[in-house]
Amino acid sequence: MLDLRFIRENPDAVRRAIRAKQLPDALESLEQLLLADEEYRLLRRDLEEKQALRNASSKHIGELKRKGEDAEPLMREMGEVAAEVKRLEERGRSLEARIGECLLEVPNLPHASVPYGESEHDNVVVKEWGTAPSFGFEPRPHWEIAAARGWVDLEAGVKITGAGFPLFRGQGARLVRGLEGFFLDRLADAGYTELVVPLMVNAASATATGQLPDKEGQMYQVQDGYYLIPTSEVAITNLHRDEILDTDALPFLYTAYSACFRREAGSYGKDVRGLNRVHQFDKVEMVAFTTPEASYDALEAMTATSEAMLEALGLGYRRLLMCTGDMGFTQAKKYDLEAWSPGQRRWLEVSSISNMEAFQATRLHTRMRAGGAAGKGKPGLVHTLNGSALAFPRTIAAILETYQNEDGSVRVPAALAPYVGRELLS
RNA sequence: GGAGGGUUGGCUGAGUGGUUGAAAGCGGCGGUCUUGAAAACCGUUGACGGGGCGACCCGUCCGGGGGUUCGAAUCCCUCACCCUCCGCCA
Q1: Please, what sign has the CA dihedral across residues A158, A159, A165, A166?
Q2: Is the CB of A65 under 7 A from strand B?
Q3: Cβ A379 to strand B below 7 Å
Q4: What ipTM was assigned to the predicted interfaces of this complex?
Q5: A340 bridge partner residues
Q6: Measuring CA to CA, which of A241, A305, A306, A347 is 20 to 30 A from A223?
Q7: pTM of the full predicted structure?
Q8: d(CA A327, CA A346)
Q9: Are A102 and A18 in contact (CB under 8 A)?
């Protein structure tokens, strides 16, 4: 969330940001927030005055009692003050709750370099890499290639669970495992610390990273108030919730391979065929904690790391700079990487890399100072970033379609072959 | 799932209704002594919010949240976490 003081001092900048992000409902929350904040600040002043009076008097009563003098009149008098303090405290609590709720509804501000736009059509292609492969035959979509050899079995997934839960088999499963090792090894080389994280998180974690209350319907909720993670970002980023990090030790770079679960309610049609959109998928995620000064360089570095993987796999791709209207609630700046899908003749989003600036850190209460928790002085907020490297299903789709042969076999990219243990899927 | 015990400042650990934001020790910081260091001794040392140019002043904080009371670290309720024992279990 944004800093309350910043909102108080720059309400117009926040209003502009909400309009640019196409989130009209948030305007109402902002206006409520400003009203509640104003009332709360007046109430605080009154409350502190009465609390001071009560505190002084109760000390005085203590003195009288110790001396054996009569404290009854003063105690009766203070009864009224105490009642007033209680009334003000109750009102203060309800205002605090309202302020907290409204604050969660206010989106992050877009960075100055983000283009204004109302929808995905206004995103800007900032980079293209590779050339579309040519075939001596009509290239097939990945679901045909995969189904022919049983590498991906969508019907089995439907029987076992339901639509959107693919089953990988044989060399298809081997490809999944190979990609995991390939991605994680390259990220280890790039300085990322590997984690294995819980696949369920509590409501506090989901709130801190911005899934709640904004995207509640998109997560699977299980018993005991837990949610299946829609991305390991949620688990990783909460690692440092309520902590003060040592500024000199930053940046912290983490990666984790995990299953991800998304309800994707309302999705249908050709966009969801095959592996294009599923409810459970694997992903290797990157998360960074940096100083505010370093976060935009870190965004570029993280993006370059993801792009290097696509290049090592030999997959043609383009990088999009997301416009204000297509960016989402928590992000200040976001790039999407899309791999070319020759069998479908369309771009597939395989990675999304974002800088949240201090938006998550404020919710997380993750701060930094020289010396960390034991250090001295006022702690400052850190910036958080995350990105995928990469999402498996669409990467697998792009590999199958890009490297397909007419006989239905698929060449394994040279850099990936050692991880898969073979150079040809057949 | 059942029974019991616990959660206090950077750490250890006192404190069961009235100048307790909190003893003591450790650690940290400053000083004395010393060529320097160590040891010893002396002093000092929590966080957050608000106010004032400032010496300072006010408020909140003893796991979280409520309650009782003129007054709560201390009493009551509730939640979370940790420990011990029993049960169950890959």
Answers
A1: negative
A2: yes
A3: yes
A4: 0.81
A5: A347
A6: A241
A7: 0.88
A8: 21
A9: no
